[in-house]
């Protein structure tokens, strides 16, 4: 009886030691295999969502605010992108782009980064720099003349010019390290 208890105790001790070692090794493997690639994937893969600002009021001509219809469209971005994690929001110095991002900025508790839109080439370059300065997904509110240029500068395909009365287009530009960018064009809100 005593011998079987000693064997039993010895066996239990070795078994527990073995389990602890296996658990430690499993934990180390889990950390090295699972967490590292995930964090690297987040750094290398990103989604850039580009919209033209929502409908603007007719006055003042120089820097109009959003119209009531534009405010509704801006609010719709919250629902359209509710499952999409965002790291940053980018707008120009004009009220219509900032107000297009204001509702989602409030809900997500994200600041809106302002990239001045004076000289168009510099503006596009600064947008690209800002996109790559922050890891994760970005939502950009641009203008009818800048949205196609932003997409192209980030490695996307050339798209048709956006009509002056078209506010519903939403572009999803997927940037995957080492792969060509892919673009999905869709629409949101009332047309």
How does this model look, in words?
The protein has 191 residues and is α/β, with parallel strands linked by helices. It has a single domain (45-187), classed as Rossmann fold. The chain is 48% helix and 18% strand. It is built from 5 helices and 6 strands. It has helices spanning 2-44, 68-80, 95-108, 120-133, 147-153, and strands spanning 45-52, 88-91, 112-114, 138-142, 169-176, 182-187. It has a 6-stranded mixed β-sheet, with helices on both faces. Strand 2, helix 3 (95-108) and strand 3 (112-114) form a beta-alpha-beta unit. Helix 2 runs parallel beside helix 3 (95-108).
Strand tally is 6
In which range does the helix fraction lie?
Answer: 40-55%
Structural class: alpha/beta
Distance between the termini: 86 Å
| Helix count, DSSP H or I runs of 4 or more residues | 5
Name the CATH superfamily assignment. Answer: Phosphoglycerate mutase-like
Compute the CA-based radius of gyration. 25 Å
From N to C, what is the helix and strand string?
HEHEHEHEHEE
In round numbers, the mean pLDDT is 83
CATH class: Alpha Beta
The strands making up the biggest β-sheet line up spatially as: 3-2-4-1-5-6
Corresponding CATH architecture:
3-Layer(aba) Sandwich
β-strand amount: 15-25%
Morphology call: globular
Largest sheet: 6 strands, mixed
CATH topology, anyone? Rossmann fold
Organism: Shewanella morhuae
Pfam families: His_Phos_1
Protein name: Histidine phosphatase superfamily (Branch 1)
